[in-house]
Amino acid sequence: MNQNLYILLLAQFLSAFADNAILFTVIAMVTQTASPAAWYIPALQASFLVAFVVLAPWVGPFADARPKAGVLITANIVKAAGASLLLVNLEPLLAYAVIGVGAAMYSPAKYGILPELVAQDKLVKANGWIEGSTILAILAGSWIGAQAADHSVAGALRLVLVLYGVSALCALFITRISVQRQERAAALPHFISITGDLFKNGRARASLLSTSLFWATAAVLRLMLVVWAPLVLLTTTTGKIAELTLYIAIGIAAGALLAPRLIPMEYLRRTGVAAFLLGLCILLLSTSETLWPARLALFAIGISGGLFVVPMNAVLQVVGYRSVGSGNAVAVQNFSENLTMLAATGIYTLAAAQGASPVASILTLGIVVLVTSLIGWLYLSARNGSGIAR
Which of 292, 342, 366, 369 has minimal Cβ neighbours within 10 Å of its Cβ? Predict the structure, then answer.
């Protein structure tokens, strides 16, 4: 670990803190002023994700062609612009979409800079620190943002603006690593080409599909909790709902820290066990009827998820750094993950609009994760002899 990495961790923590604080601030803004339709909150999440899909062909080359510290600064400025639009009462769906543009720019630089800062044998550990920092930010940002928004939406938005600004200032102190001049290519054909290259690589393909499954599950589960918690646990405020997400966040942070010891890249097949446990824990959550069983189930979901996603992130960074460029690889990953998240969110939005039960929705999600994780584990086992995983 070096000084640049510590600065990156702080910048990432502050930016992710603000990202999650503003989500619950927007939810509070909407729920305090009116009773939104069942589809509105899922649509809000979808508006954030659209940029990751639409801009994927451009944000990867943008990050790889520039010092990534500068990209982090630019992305924070865009996020702050979106938060400012909320302050002047622009339609939340549009303002939150602008924040999504900043987040889509930020991600390839955040992960793509890691192979430049640490050696390959330290990548899983560095990813664990980044994921741990992110989850701690989710933990603190979700709870503090919700509490602040319950007190004052405008005050919460001002807090978010300050955090984006300080995160950008931190990125100024990351040593700027020069980039090699790259031949410019048409963005969309180039993106299609590098996506094909990554999916042809067995390790990259396993990583892309696995992380897409995890983040789609996480996105839909968070939306389900907004409806499930008031119905089953009788929670009454945005802050109390946000408290539940803390247990997932703490669990993911713990899983991220355990991953380098339990699932090094040489034993990638072990992630199948973590994915299967993730599905089982979601099923347990669907049977919870009181607060503490729900908290324990959410914590277990987090640990399983952290063990599952951290090694997969590291694998893609190594493959990308050696082939299409780390920023390009992360952009493809963002496209894959967020397209899956959009699809999952869209399906859940339609189900919610038709009056689907929150309990039945969580149960269905658990079954889907169990089935897909079993298929993935069988695939990795079948390819064991080709060097994909042990």
Answer: 292
